[in-house]
Design brief:
Structural class: alpha/beta
Shape: globular
Number of helices: 11
Radius of gyration: 17 Å
Distance between the termini: 10 Å
Oligomer: single chain
Strand content: 15-25%
Helix content: 25-40%
Largest sheet: 8 strands, parallel
CATH topology: TIM Barrel
Number of domains: 1
Length: about 270
């Protein structure tokens, strides 16, 4: 079993379409069948969708896709912090068994009442942000108690030219918090070098993440279709599989499957 914990599905033909913008170099329609075709030989068996749109209607639309397809094992929604009747809407969405969390950015910890609600509803928090935001995670957990947090896209750090001190410090700060995970995703988009498909180019980043998060707190994601202008899903799979297969069968299974089940509390999966 291999779970891709970061895909975006949308249909620009919908009247309510919000993301991606028209100028984005992605297909106009990205639905499960398009993703399955794009996989090629990459042996992905299910995916967790991450919503890029803060519109309430898009959260419900994705859940309708989840109802139709068992390949879609979970959905990280996206509700704007100023959404009218935020609590009522989140409670309604959380009642769906595949609604597993919400995604936030730099404003993640500016609305702690909403983070408390996530904890109450047993939802996780995906964070797409920077070192300054990640550095706030320990204080939030110390205040609220254990909340599940998934740092998106290897903490948004470029790959291939060393590691910045502020970023290193922020990632090391969460090392002792077992409910904080890091998603190994968007590495092609973040790559800064001349040999993008060479697994050796990613060793410095992957070694650092392994040292800090270990075999129990790293999860696999592709960031499809945002990754598509940079390389294939097969390339992404080959890069990470080369690394984690060398760590042994147990570590590989955790990275590709078991850690995702735990981080997102995916129902019906073990």
């Amino acid at each position: 079993m291999i779970l891709d914990t970061h895909t975006h599905f949308y249909d620009t033909r919908r009247d309510e379409h919000y993301w991606p913008p028209e100028e984005a170099p992605f297909p106009n329609v990205c639905l499960p069948e398009v993703y399955r075709e794009a996989l090629g030989s990459a042996p992905v068996t299910g995916t967790v969708i991450v919503e890029a749109s803060p519109q309430l209607v898009d959260n419900h639309w994705i859940l309708s896709l989840c109802d139709e397809d068992d390949f879609l094992v979970g959905f990280v929604g996206n509700l704007a912090h100023d959404q009218e009747n935020f609590e009522a809407h989140l409670r309604e969405l959380a009642a769906h068994p595949k609604y597993v969390g919400i995604r936030r950015g730099k404003e993640s910890f500016e609305h702690m009442d909403q983070i408390r609600l996530l904890k109450e509803l047993d939802l996780e928090l995906d964070i797409l942000a920077d070192a300054e935001t990640f550095a706030k995670i320990p204080a939030a957990i110390d205040e609220l108690g254990e909340i599940r947090v998934v740092i998106n896209h290897i903490g948004m750090h470029p790959v291939g030219n060393g590691l910045e001190a502020d970023w290193v410090a922020s990632m090391e700060a969460v090392k002792e918090y077992p409910s904080v995970y890091c998603k190994v995703s968007a590495m092609l988009e973040l790559y800064d070098g001349n040999d993008i498909s060479n697994p050796a180019e990613y060793l410095e980043m992957l070694d650092f993440l392994w040292e800090n998060f270990g075999e129990d707190r790293l999860v696999f994601g592709t960031n499809w279709p945002v990754c598509s202008p940079h390389g294939s899903l097969e390339t992404i799979y080959t890069i990470v599989n080369t690394y984690f297969a060398a760590k042994g069968d147990t570590a590989r299974e955790k990275f590709f499957y078991k850690n995702a089940v735990k981080a997102y509390k995916l129902q019906g999966l073990e």
